[in-house]
Write a structure and sequence with these properties.
Elements lengths: L8 E5 L3 H10 L3 E9 L1 H7 L5 E8 L6 E9 L19 E4 L3 H10 L3 E2 L4 E3 L3 E7 L5 E7 L2
Parallel strand pairs: 1-4, 5-9
Antiparallel strand pairs: 2-3, 3-4, 6-8, 7-8, 8-9
Length: about 150
């Protein structure tokens, strides 16, 4: 029996919603909507009494899975590990296919974001790089080659 019907979105909690939103918009996402949520619903779902957060829902122009960025107004943020590497338990990375890997890397570098390691090529089929985005988010960018 299949319970999942479709992949809806990936959620990432950030301290600076505006900076994180600008980073992903720079990669080609569009802001689908923004807002805030508080009260019984979010407290129940998150299991956090007094939860109140701002949200930006992002989508690609072609559609597909969306990206939800949220920033808690209450309670205070709990720090994560901004220098996490790929072997740290938890969300490893969020990955996006790009048309031109070098151009995408240059675009995020212009905004002050750098590579975690280097650009790798796998069996002549893809080129990939991890970029350390805002608040330490690891973003995998890859392009098909060959």
């Amino acid at each position: 029996m299949t319970h999942v019907q479709r992949f809806d979105h990936v959620g990432i909690t950030v301290a600076d919603l505006e900076t994180a939103t600008a980073f992903f918009v720079g990669l080609g996402f569009e802001v689908e909507g923004t807002g805030s949520v508080e009260g019984e619903f979010v407290e129940t779902v998150c299991g956090i009494p007094g939860a109140h957060c701002k949200i930006a829902m992002l989508r690609l122009p072609a559609g597909g899975t969306r990206l939800e960025l949220s920033s808690f107004l209450t309670p205070d943020h709990v720090p994560g590990s901004p220098a996490a590497m790929a072997n740290e338990l938890g969300l490893r990375n969020v990955s996006f296919e790009v048309g031109d890997l070098n151009a995408a890397i240059e675009a995020v570098a212009a905004d002050g974001y750098g590579l975690v390691g280097g650009v790798g090529e796998y069996e002549g089929s893809v080129r990939m790089a991890y970029v350390r985005g805002p608040e330490g988010i690891i973003v995998s960018l890859f392009e098909h080659i060959g």
